[in-house]
Design goal:
Its cofactor is [2Fe-2S] cluster; FAD. By secondary structure, the chain is an alpha/beta fold. It folds into two domains: about 90 residues, Translation factors (Elongation Factor Tu (Ef-tu), domain 3), CATH 2.40.30.10; about 160 residues, 3-Layer(aba) Sandwich (Rossmann fold), CATH 3.40.50.80. The chain binds flavin-adenine dinucleotide and FE2/S2 (inorganic) cluster.
Length: about 280
């Protein structure tokens, strides 16, 4: 039987990390084996008494004490109430849910493409890749509207010492790179075609990045997207998150590009359709 009962979650710490975004450190009071086995790209439901629950991605997955982190942008009632809480507040937790990024560490060259808050689901996999011994190399191209909207400042500062990071801006200041992440693919592909693309951000960016990688010689089987949908139950019961005939909360949010296109092509009439996140 599926248990939908939330478990106790403590708010340990939070700090501002980008425009209207905060970085939260949380602790599951009694972590279970499934929590410790959570992988980057999976998500959890955060329950705020009086406001309901909402899905968020792990930036770092739970450690043995149940401590993990999440990057959360203020959107509506739940996130506004969350931002007003003090450290020590008691929340609820369900998870981990969904399918995370594939284990790709046999790949030599990994390209990560992120837009806006889409960097959050990629953070765990980037951290893991930077800890891998050679020959795995990961590079990141991260697009944001302007510098104020960038998230995960502390992580990006660290990654800049460890890997190739290109940051692009719709509204660039002097000395910054202007334009979309795609405009910098020549540079990223100069050393050769990556083995794997991992991509998360607005749907239009992900689809364009996937097409550009195909055009430059990558196989559709090597391209992975994190496609978020409206979610309620998180466990394949309510049907709010259909991608074609699949449940994004169970089969996704990470999809292989060729499989994702097939699902979209066979989308039933009642499907909710594409609902890109605004952050
Ligand atoms: C798998 C998954 C992982 C997510 N991870 C993160 C994360 O790491 N960090 C983060 O900040 N946000 C994340 N989100 C989005 C987050 O769940 C919503 O922003 C949150 O539900 C907002 O709750 P709210 O009550 O504050 O706002 P609401 O009042 O629920 O929403 C505010 C606005 O956002 C829109 N909205 C809310 N959820 C979605 C959605 N799924 N798709 C499209 N539009 C939506 C609403 O229509 C409304 O316009 C994730 C969503 C999913 C499905
Ligand atoms: S969120 Fe309920 S089925 Fe996916």
């Amino acid at each position: 039987m599926i248990d939908l009962t939330p478990r106790r979650l403590l708010l340990l710490d939070h700090y501002a990390d980008g425009e209207d975004a905060r970085h939260f450190t949380l602790r599951i009071e009694q972590p279970q084996a499934a929590d410790l086995a959570a992988t980057p790209g999976q998500f959890f439901m955060l329950v705020l008494p009086g406001y309901g629950e909402a899905p968020f991605t792990y930036v770092s997955t739970p450690d043995e004490q149940g401590v993990f982190s999440a990057l959360i942008r203020r959107m509506g009632a739940l996130t506004t109430a969350l931002f007003a809480l003090e450290n020590g507040a008691v929340l609820g937790y369900r998870g981990p849910f969904g399918t995370g990024w594939p284990l790709f560490f046999k790949a030599q060259r990994v390209l990560a493409v992120a837009g806006g808050c889409g960097l959050a689901p990629l953070a765990g996999v980037i951290e893991a890749a930077t800890r891998q011994p050679e020959p795995t190399q990961i590079s990141l191209v991260y697009g944001a509207r302007h510098a104020g909207t960038q998230v995960l400042a502390r992580e990006r500062n660290r990654w800049q010492q460890q890997m190739a990071v290109i940051e692009t801006f719709d509204q660039a200041r002097a000395g910054e790179r202007e334009g979309s992440p795609l405009q910098h693919f020549d540079e990223l592909f100069a050393a050769g075609v990556p083995d794997v693309l991992l991509c998360c951000g607005p749907e239009a960016l992900m689809l364009a990045a996937a097409e550009e990688c195909l055009r430059r010689g990558m196989a559709a089987e090597s391209i992975w997207l994190s496609v978020e949908r409206r979610m309620h139950c998180g466990v394949g019961l309510c049907g709010h998150c259909y991608v074609g005939s699949s449940y994004a909360c169970v089969d996704g949010p990470t999809y292989r590009y060729d499989q994702y296109l097939k699902l979209l092509a066979h989308r039933p009439q009642f499907s909710a359709g594409v609902a890109p996140l605004s952050c």
